[in-house]
Design brief:
Elements (H helix, E strand, L loop, with lengths): L4 E9 L3 H16 L5 E6 L4 H7 L7 H5 L4 E6 L7 H15 L4 E7 L17 E7 L3 E10 L7 E7 L2 H17 L4 E6 L7 H12 L7 E6 H10 L6 E4 L1 H14 L7 E5 L7 E5 L16 H13 L3 H17 L13 H11 L1
Parallel strand pairs: 1-2, 1-3, 3-12, 5-10, 8-9, 8-10
Antiparallel strand pairs: 4-5, 4-11, 6-7, 11-12
Bound molecules: 3-isopropylmalic acid (IPM) and magnesium ion.
């Protein structure tokens, strides 16, 4: 195999994950082809169907199988026949945690040509990126249930926050903010109510601030930040938040950007000790699965983030420009954007521009 071939593990998963993954891989391949770079895509049939057949979401040694790939591309996971906490805790979260993909990077942009739900806002007003902590916090899996099934039942879900874990994500966010034109960093906190975890979070942010004098950092309680994303999104640039806060804020960010179907995400291990994983932020959408109408843009944009991570920044930009061009053209619109185009139409339009 030539050194310019990247080996990618592909888990298309469930529902529309299977419909949007092929367009994403096709776009990635088309974007790097001119440079003589290729991909070897190795598909893994893991997900809820696999679970219903075998009792497992992925093979018992699944993580070992994935570990030597250059990256992982994930479509979506989840199906009505399998409880979500099972499918998620046996596939997505183990990959994120075991491969120490502690950065979940999620751009939130109102792209030209898209009508968002906020009146009077254009692309210049909504151009943010969320740096979501992706390895600890409320997703650490710590907790317990006492007296199950009785009236005294009691559940505890512990948020786990470490100084090291906070510091590495906040540092990543500072570095990112320093490279962006506006150099603004918003830290999502809730230290008025969460007197242990979020007080530590604030302390770490304040401690790093002197190292980044060019970055203006502002802390917001997460509830106020959610409101600000709606009332004054133009005042926001880079947002850093804990795992759960980042999860919620990025769905909000996708919604104000016009559609959940447009938003991409990257689960990154910055030290590259393990493969990083790229996925659209939407789920498997069982309600529209099989109809061929899913918007492939979130998935294709996620493939662009993968190219960037693999060192092909220019090819990545070409994909983003192709997406922008198609949306600005205004002709091809999937139903989530108010049109009648199919997944294949949107894919064809974007590939045509590549
Ligand atoms: C996301 C999803 C996941 C998360 C779910 C599927 C566990 O909502 O990637 O945002 O909460 O991280
Ligand atoms: Mg989410």
């Amino acid at each position: 195999m030539s050194p310019t071939t990247h080996r990618i593990a592909v888990i298309a998963g469930d529902g529309i994950g299977r419909e949007v993954t092929p367009p994403a891989l096709a776009a990635a391949a088309a974007a790097v082809r001119p440079q003589g770079i290729g991909f070897e895509f190795v598909e893994f049939p893991w997900g809820c169907d696999h679970y219903l057949k075998t009792g497992r979401m992925m093979d018992a040694d699944g993580l070992d199988q994935l570990r030597h790939f250059d990256a992982i591309y994930l479509g979506a996971i989840g199906a009505p026949a399998v409880p979500d906490h099972v499918s998620i805790w046996e596939l997505i979260l183990p990959i994120r945690q075991r491969f120490d993909q502690y950065v979940n990077l999620r751009p939130m942009r109102l792209l030209p040509g898209v009508t968002g739900p906020l009146a009077g806002r254009g692309p210049a007003d909504i151009d943010m990126i969320c740096v979501r902590e992706n390895s600890e916090g409320e997703y650490a899996g710590a907790g317990r249930i006492d007296h199950p099934g009785t009236p005294d039942e009691r559940a505890e879900q512990t948020g786990v926050f470490t100084r090291r874990g906070i510091e590495r994500i906040v540092r990543y966010a500072f570095e990112l903010a320093a490279r962006r034109p506006r150099r603004l960093l918003a830290s999502a906190t809730k230290s008025n109510a969460l007197q242990y975890s979020m007080v530590l979070w604030d302390e770490v942010v304040a401690g790093l601030q002197p190292e980044y004098p060019a970055v203006t950092v502002q802390k917001y309680h997460v509830d106020a930040l959610a409101a600000r994303m709606v009332t004054n999104p133009g005042s926001l640039d880079v947002i850093v938040g804990s795992n759960l806060f980042g999860d919620i804020l990025t769905d909000l960010g996708a919604a104000i950007s016009g559609s959940l179907g447009l938003a991409p995400g990257a689960n990154i291990n910055p030290e590259r000790r393990f493969p990083s994983m790229f996925e659209p932020i939407h789920g498997s959408a069982p309600d529209i699965a099989g109809k061929g109408i899913a918007n492939p843009i979130g998935a294709i944009w996620a493939a662009a983030l993968m190219l960037d991570h693999l060192g092909h920044g220019e090819a990545s930009q070409r994909i983003v420009r192709a997406i922008e061009g198609v949306l600005a053209g205004g002709r091809v619109r999937t139903p989530d954007l108010g049109g009648t185009a199919k997944t294949a139409d949107m894919t064809g339009a974007i590939l045509g521009r590549l």
